[in-house]
Each structure stands twice: as structure tokens, then as C-alpha cells.
Amino acid sequence: MTFDSISFIYLFLPVGILLFRAVPQRYRTPYLAVLSWLFYLLAGVPALLILLANCLLDFVLLGFLYLYQGTARSTIYSLFAAKAVAVLCLVLFYSSFQPGASIGIFVYTATLIGYLWDLYQGRAQAFYSFWEYAVFTTFFGKAFLGPVVRYERFVPQLAGLRSSATLISRGAVWFVTGLAKKVVIASGIVAIYSEMASVPMEDYSFFSAWMLLFSGAMSIFFTISAYSDMARGLCSMFGLEVPRIIYYPYQAKSFVECLSRINMSLYDLALDVVSGSAESVRALKRYRQADTKKLAAVLAGVLAVAFWLRPSPIMLLWAVFMFAMILAERYLYFGLIRYMPGLLQSAFTFLVFLFSLSLPIVPSIWQLGDFLAILIGFPGQRMLSNETSYFLSTNYLSVLFALIFFTSIPDRLAMLFARRFPDTAEWLMALFNCTLLVLSTALLL
Asked: Which 3-state string (H, E, C) describes the chain?
């Protein structure tokens, strides 16, 4: 079961919300834990067993950790975090043989590491309720891509879970928006990317090579954005508030801003653990005043985002390249780019980001040189191929929607219209979301 399946949209979710409203408030946290485990069971038995076993074991281990306050406290915390990462790696390896087994494990591990860090820093309290810990780490609404929630913002909400028509309607808007992004835009863009990636290297033209990179970048953005909206919507329906995962990274004016916007919660967690304060690192202007510790925190954030996108050695190489671009921006051409118009800064950052995707996209590292020669228009290369024309003609609507919605311009225009014409905007939004739901359902069928 996934968020974009008919059984989830029209059966699991409505029944889950109705029962949540019927359950007395003091039992709503246990109910959300059981509902989450039911979701994992329907998604795949291995996913449920892995997450449930981790949840039970870690809760018991945390109980012993609370009692231990010896001099080797930091070592015990580090070993606990290392154990969580080791389990994550084993599950990711196992999932290659059992598809679906890794659902939720990355989010669970990152959430646990964030909690251990907050507990070590004194910003979190001990869990005395297993149900609260279970919802904190395994709530199904953030199962696929997150966000990675922190104790101080998420757990206090569990003490007063409430359900209202306002929260459900707001959540439904977010969920339907995310569903439409996934079904209408992301699926079409992913189809273009998959079809073009299957083309042999010798058949690529200049335009098809750049189209491959563009479709890869748009697949990343719209897939993450879709699950981010759906996660926020699902949490809102059950009385919870979580941050968004991604925020228009391709309109960023610097590389570090671009990468940090791909998964903001995970990036901030990495900054916090390495530097001690994510806010102090984010406040730096293009990291011109960053010391070695803060630069190490930036590197950790880039590596975490890269591993989250795809846990593979080639993604680590991609992360190193992007960090090298961050250093180049800091030490080499900051004085030049700072005087460029904002639009040109964003265009330059996006262009280099597209160029960097050659590393994870090219099937073999040995073909990278040939692919780069095509990208830069090496003499003798074709400009357009029949395959590219065909793929674009069959998925042109997805490409058109991607070009329209991959920046925040539509959101800003909608907000401006809502401020000037609030009543009209409310009716148009309701009609628009109903249309999106009908269209998404038709495409799913």
C-alpha cells in the first residue's frame, strides 16, 4: 500500500480518520501507533516486522540509557547511534532482495539519531510511554520520505491530539495537492527519465542529454515535494503539525542553499549534530565567515542528503563534487557572483546542479567522459534525436507542468490573489482541489 493507491485514498484513510475522531482523546496516541503498524503490514510484512522490532528494542535500550549517567555517557550515545546506522545499512541491503522492506527505516533511524542528540544536549526528555515513542518514530504519515521530526516540536503535540473539520480540510488540501504532483507530474517525468535513461549512449544528442538531466532533476523535486505535501496533509488530518521537507531548491542562489532545501529537516539535523547549532551555520552569508567546524557541518549535511537520495558510492562522489562547488563559491568567485542579478545566480546554480547529476545518472563512470562531451556540444554531436522528440510528444503535459510549478511563482501568485479576493479564492481553491482529486483518481484507475 502506498499513499497514491486507491485502497489507501478511499478506504484506509477515511476509515482511519473516522475511527480517530471516535476514539477518546487519551487513547488516540495508541490508536495512531496501531494504525501505523497496520499500514506497514499492508505495505509489506517485512517492513512491519523490521520497524516493530526496532521500536521495541530501542525503547528498552533507551530505558537503560536513561538510568546510566556515567563518565562514558557520550560513548554510549555514540554506540547507540552507530547501532541504528548499522541496522539501517543491513535493512537497505536486505531490501534489494525483499522489495518494500525498507519502508520507513531511513526516517526511523534519522528520527532516533536526532532524539539521541537532543537527549544528550538536554533538549529532550525521557519517553515513559511506549505509544508516544512508537508514534514519534513510526507514524505512517511520514513513512516514505519524512520529514525527520524533532522531539521538542513533535512529541508535545501528542498530549493533546484533537480532530476538527478545519484540520481535516486543511490536511485534505495538502494531501490532494501532493497526490496530484505525484500522479500528474512526477509519474510522467519519471517515465520520461526512465525511457531516456534506457537509450544507448551512442544514440544521445545534445538536447537529449540535457533532457535526461532535466527530467532527473524534476523527478527528484516533484517526487519529494509530492510526498512532503502528502505527509503534511496526513499529519494535519490526525491533529499533528510537521515541517515541509523541500522548498524549491532549483531557485536557490547558491549551491549550499540548493542542497539544504532538498531535505531541510535532515540537513538541519546533520548541521546540529556536527556544529552544535544549525541556526548559527545557516545564518552565515554563503559561509564566507565559516570556520572548519562549520564547513565540516555543511559537508555532513550534503553527505546526509546524498545518502538519503540514494545510498550508493556514486552518490557520495556526487556529494563530494557539490561540496567542492560550495568551497569554490566561497573561496574563488564569491566576489564576482555577489554582483549578479538574483535570477542569474539562480540560473547558474541550477545549471551546475543539472551538470552534477551526470555522476549518478550515467550508467558507468567510464562513460562519463563521453556523456560530458555530448553535454558541452562537442563538434560532430547531433542536436536532436528522434527518441527525444517521441518521448516529449507523449509526455508533453508533464514537462509543461514541471516548467510551471518547479519554482515558487505559482504559490506566490495564488497567495497574492487570496489576499485581494479571499472569498473568490476560497471557492476556486475548493473547485481546484476537487478537480485535482478527480484527475488523480482517473489516472490511478
From this structure: CCCCCHHHHHHHHHHHHHHHHHCCHHHHHHHHHHHHHHHHHHHCHHHHHHHHHHHHHHHHHHHHHHHCCCCCHHHHHHHHHHHHHHHHHHHHHHHCCCCCCCCCHHHHHHHHHHHHHHHHCCCCCCCCCHHHHHHHHHCHHHCCCCCCCCHHHHHHHHHHCCCCHHHHHHHHHHHHHHHHHHHHHHHHHHHHHHHHHCCCHHHCCHHHHHHHHHHHHHHHHHHHHHHHHHHHHHHHHCCCCCCCCCCCHHHCCCHHHHHHCCCHHHHHHHHHHHHCCHHHHHCCCCCCCCCHHHHHHHHHHHHHHHHHHCCCHHHHHHHHHHHHHHHHHHHCCHHHHCCCCHHHHHHHHHHHHHHHCHHHHCCCHHHHHHHHHHHCCCCCCCCCCHHHHHHHHHCHHHHHHHHHHCCCHHHHHHHHHHHHCHHHHHHHHHHHHHHHHHHHHHHHC
